[in-house]
UniProtKB/TrEMBL annotation, chain A:
Pfam families: Peptidase_C13. One of its GO terms (molecular function) is GPI-anchor transamidase activity. This is GPI-anchor transamidase. The chain crosses the membrane at residues 350-369. Belongs to the peptidase C13 family. Keywords: GPI-anchor biosynthesis, Membrane, Signal, Transmembrane, Transmembrane helix. GO terms for biological process: attachment of GPI anchor to protein; GPI anchor biosynthetic process; proteolysis. The lineage of its organism: Eukaryota, Metazoa, Chordata, Craniata, Vertebrata. Pathway: Glycolipid biosynthesis; glycosylphosphatidylinositol-anchor biosynthesis. The active site is at H153, C195.
Automatic annotation (TrEMBL), chain B:
This is Phosphatidylinositol glycan anchor biosynthesis class T. Transmembrane segments: none annotated. It comes from Nothoprocta perdicaria (Chilean tinamou). The lineage of its organism: Eukaryota, Metazoa, Chordata, Craniata, Vertebrata. GO terms for biological process: attachment of GPI anchor to protein. GO terms for cellular component: GPI-anchor transamidase complex. It holds the Pfam family Gpi16.
Length: 381, 391
């Protein structure tokens, strides 16, 4: 739109401003792609709610447009097909089993033992072994807006991974700084739902990060409601109310971040949710929810028509002529008993004798020569 | 194809098999049509000659269910034959397990030298092979691997019609994982393109076996239907399929009668694992199948021939009335039939003891009447015939 036609005179100042204005509109949020890294760090059946938290955010983010190829989902344990789950292949977020957040087309990228602090930091910083498949990588660039959601058990300054290791707020802050220096994000939204969650964003120092947490230092984040049929708590309060809020959002929503900060006041959440915006360049008032939870879909509508020629003949190139085998190929025999029992066993690779054996022989030779004298050496060699 | 076999102890095993054939010369590939590109690249660029990956949850109870249709250990099992152009087999193996972990959302990247072996005599190639140098074979098992929806989703996406049409519409995770056994596998191997076997084609075979045991309704009836098992019915065959069939094992034992609805397109007999079996075949591509109704729901009912059978039992009440048991049953010939009844002894009051309690108690003997001759007799004979006719 507004582009100069080939044979028309150059656009005048009026038209130039129009073009600039439209271009500004086009790039208002200055990001061109969206990514999401969703991490559940808890193992064991009674931490069902953490998996349900993460999957609910996964569902919302998918619904608002981020595709699976741009989501890195890490679940530290399997709840859906857990033998203790009375309804296999389901994870519910509401009691009375209303909403199955596991669904039919979930793709978990890191699961079970793969969810470790090391793998999480490697995903963030991009320092990943070369043979890692694409679905396990965060292939973001300097125009990516990234949503990072973490949930599990945490304390003052740390988050526990799988009951066996922790990540500290310092490590997390340094990882974000590495991302900034490697130009791996444009803007980053960090949400954490754990006890004392605000401690995790205290140490951030890289620009363009906005953070939300479910509770302040010294406070616990509480779970929402148990389901008597499944026998565990299904979700945490903060994420539950964030989700209720996100249900109202659709891909064209204009709701901004200030509304997200109001979600879950102390009366509902019992803990006091916190947020941090000092590192963020834009005013939260101007930041749309869909800047992080949705996906950029820049669509250009053109009024030109292109006519397709219905008389085009299909052009098929002949496949290159294959060489046929001289004699017919055959399948391998499955149980060639005679051949198997007459196989020579593989020669073991020769290793030089180990240190102990060498030492023993050296001792024996020394004793021999001590006893019988050097002059006997010529008899040996 | 879908094979439905009722199991001896009352469950039912459903085995799906999807085969995609790709006519391409190894090494010279650029056109993928129905063969999924993700797997095709393994063959074309990663030096894979044969690949077998199975993800299994549960345990096949051979003693109760018989031989499994396809063997697979619980967890993840991967064995691969590499092409002889591969120089460093261990490196290729490690890279392959990483690639597969991304495709199938499974932790196959944990496969390394600590859990891989090179079998020397077993796991011969199942496809065309020009000599078998076992150095090109690797095998690994991850017993702790969980199988869930995230493994089924990419498996379904490899099918030409996905899970939108054909037999794959039945594959819904909520029903498949609520089962006693679930095993899904992917097999790639080179096969003969035709009878002369001078050219090579690649075959992708995806199999899924599931055993349902928990739907036997009232009175342990062995009735089932596609809808009861999968909570779905089939509405059309996959338009890209050249063949789409359902086989229902209707072989029966003893005097059971089997009734399948709707009526099958044809019947097929085969000898499977040493036994002769009959199969009812539903050909989804034949136009007659979807004539009467838009959806296909195969149902099986088992009935036994109606024997006349009557039992009347009136339990005893202490000091008031005795037990009464009347039975009308047909006894099979040349056999022994035992009827047992359990009872409890009550304590007597001291005034009820007879003078000689050391005798014990007398039971009322059952008065049975084996009456073949009476039934066979005509009424007139009862009046006039001699004594021997009433014996």
């Amino acid at each position: 739109p507004g582009a100069a036609k080939p044979n028309a005179p150059w656009p005048g100042p009026q038209e130039a401003f129009l073009v600039l204005d439209q271009a500004e509109q086009f790039f208002k949020s200055s990001h061109t792609n969206n990514w999401a890294v969703l991490v559940c760090t808890s193992r064991f059946w009674f931490n069902y709610r953490h998996v349900a938290n993460t999957l609910s955010v996964y569902r919302s983010v998918k619904r608002l447009g981020i595709p699976d190829s741009h989501i890195v989902l890490m679940l530290a344990d399997d709840m859906a097909c857990n033998p203790r789950n009375p309804k296999p292949a389901t994870v519910f977020s509401h009691k009375n089993m209303e909403l199955n957040v596991y669904g039919d087309d979930v793709e978990v990228d890191y699961r079970s033992y793969e969810v470790t602090v090391e793998n999480f930091l490697r995903v963030l910083t991009g320092r990943i072994p070369p043979s890692t498949p694409r679905s396990k990588r965060l292939l973001s660039d300097d125009r990516s807006n990234i949503l990072i959601y973490m949930t599990g058990h945490g304390g003052n300054g740390f988050l526990k991974f799988q009951d066996s290791e922790e990540i500290t707020n310092v490590e997390l802050a340094d990882a974000f700084e590495q991302m900034w220096q490697k130009r791996r994000y444009n803007e980053l939204l960090f949400i954490i739902d754990t006890c004392q969650g605000a401690s995790m964003y205290e140490r951030f120092y890289s620009p363009n990060i906005m953070a939300l947490a479910s509770s302040q230092v010294g406070e616990d984040s509480l779970s929402h409601q148990p389901d008597l049929g499944i026998g565990v708590h299904l979700m945490d309060r903060y994420t539950f109310y964030v989700l209720e809020f996100l249900e109202e959002i659709h891909p064209a929503s204009q709701t901004n971040m200030n509304d997200l900060f109001q979600v879950c006041p102390k009366s509902l959440c019992v803990s006091t949710p916190g947020h941090r915006t000092d590192l963020f360049q834009r005013d939260p008032q101007n930041v749309l929810i869909t800047d992080f939870f949705g996906s950029v879909r820049k669509v250009e509508i053109t009024a030109e028509t292109i006519s397709l020629d219905p008389n085009l003949t299909a052009f098929e190139s002949k496949p290159p002529k294959e060489e046929l085998a001289a004699e017919p190929l055959k399948y391998a025999e499955q149980l060639p008993v005679a051949q198997i029992i007459h196989q020579k066993p593989k020669q073991k690779d020769w290793h030089p004798p180990g240190g102990f054996i060498l030492g023993l022989w050296a001792l024996i030779i020394m004793v021999f020569f001590k006893t019988y004298g050097i002059k006997h050496m010529k008899h040996i060699f | 194809e879908l094979l439905l076999s009722p199991l001896p102890a009352g469950g039912i095993a459903a085995t799906f098999q999807f085969r995609t054939r790709w006519d391409a010369a190894p090494g010279r590939v650029s056109h993928y049509r129905l063969f999924p590109k993700a797997l095709g690249q393994l063959v074309a660029a990663r030096g894979v000659r044969e690949l077998h990956l199975a993800l299994t949850q549960g345990f096949w109870r051979t003693r109760i269910w018989g031989q499994p249709p396809l063997q697979a250990p619980a967890g993840a099992e991967l064995w691969v034959w590499f092409q002889d152009t591969v120089a460093d087999v261990d490196k290729a193996w490690k890279e392959l397990s990483n690639i597969l972990s991304g495709i199938f959302c499974a932790s196959l990247n944990f496969i390394d030298s600590t859990n891989s072996v090179t079998p020397t005599a077993s796991f011969k190639p199942l496809g065309l092979a020009n000599g078998t140098d076992h150095r090109l074979l690797r095998y690994a098992v991850l017993p702790r691997e969980v199988v869930c929806t995230e493994n089924l989703t990419p498996w379904k996406k490899l099918l030409p019609c996905g899970s939108k049409a054909g037999l794959a519409v039945l594959l819904k995770a909520e029903r498949l994982f609520h089962s006693s056994y679930h095993s899904q596998a992917v097999h790639i191997r080179p096969i003969c393109r035709d009878a002369s076997c001078q050219a090579v084609s690649w075959e992708l075979r995806q199999t899924l076996t599931v055993v349902f045991e928990n739907f036997s309704g009232t009175q342990g009836k062995k009735d089932w239907s596609l809808f009861k098992m999968f909570s779905r019915t089939i509405t059309e065959a996959c338009p890209l399929a050249s063949q789409s069939k359902i086989y229902v094992d209707t072989s029966v034992k003893d005097k059971e009668l089997v009734e399948v609805t709707p009526s099958p397109t044809s019947l097929h007999e085969a000898i499977v694992q040493g036994e002769k079996r009959t199969y009812a075949v539903y050909d989804l591509l034949s136009p007659s199948l979807f004539n009467t109704s838009r959806s296909l729901n195969v149902q099986l009912k088992m009935t036994w021939p109606q024997d006349s059978c009557y039992i009347h039992y009136q339990p005893a009440q202490d000091r008031r009335r005795p037990h009464l048991l009347e039975m009308l049953i047909q006894l099979p010939a040349n056999s022994v039939t035992k009827i047992t009844i359990q009872f409890e002894r009550a304590l007597l009051k001291w005034t009820e003891y007879p003078p000689d309690p050391n005798h014990g108690f007398y039971f009322l003997p059952p008065s049975g009447a084996l009456v073949p001759s009476v039934i066979a007799m005509k009424e007139l004979d009862m009046e006039q015939s001699p004594l021997f006719t009433s014996l």
